[in-house]
Amino acid sequence: MLQAPVQRELMRLGHSRIVPANTTLGRQGEPTSIVSLLLEGRVTRTRVEPNGVPVMLPLRYPGDLVGELSWLDHGTHSATIVARDRSTLLVFPHRDLEMFMQQRPSVLLTYTRMIADSLHEAEAHHSDAGAYDVERRLGRVLLRQVERYPRKLDEHYVVELRQKELAMLIGARETTVQKALRCPPLRELVRPSRGRILLCDVRRLSAFAELNDADGRFSLRDL
């Protein structure tokens, strides 16, 4: 996530674009010549694997870059990018961004660190698939969404994603996710609603999903 001073500098470089929910911002395999900074909303990225299975990559949230790898290799979109909500983006042509980076090496370093963070996040999702059962993978992905995009409905944290999307995020079938949400222990910790999941007990869910720190304490920041 870009820090506020860097964001302010970039605001003078790019142009703002506001898009409604469900707007396709780029399709897998298409060439692109822009990078965007997400200011408001959420962005999903879905990639179809060679075997035809769609996989959802970690979502992008305010302060994240969208299409950041394309600037490095001047290549194509590696996934289809869709605005999950009404979103505001700051758009930069590759050429303008490259000139800016040449003038501001410190910003280039920040950009490189952000790319490293996104790769670590993708690696964590990949590792979860081999290390945890479906129930714990589901718990972990729900908690990560809340950590990045904390929203509450009444007294509960809420993740506004459909069960199909959650299934794609953890690499499972939608029916498997539906079953996991209906059975213990998840049915005691979360509550499905229309198009969203309510987290009834974040601390117990964190313990179940093994997202506590080394001392066994709740460790997600700001929750």
UniProtKB/TrEMBL annotation:
Example of a GO MF term: DNA-binding transcription factor activity
Q: Which GO terms describe its cellular component?
A: cytosol
Q: Under which name does UniProt file this protein?
A: Crp/Fnr family transcriptional regulator
Q: Which CDD domains match?
A: CAP_ED
Q: Which Pfam families does the record cross-reference, listed alphabetically?
A: cNMP_binding, HTH_Crp_2
Swiss-Prot/TrEMBL keywords: DNA-binding, Transcription, Transcription regulation
For this protein, the record's Gene3D superfamilies field holds:
Jelly Rolls
The UniProt record lists the Cyclic nucleotide-binding domain at 1-101
Q: Which SMART domains does the UniProt entry name for this protein?
A: cNMP
To which species is this protein native?
A: Actinomadura bangladeshensis
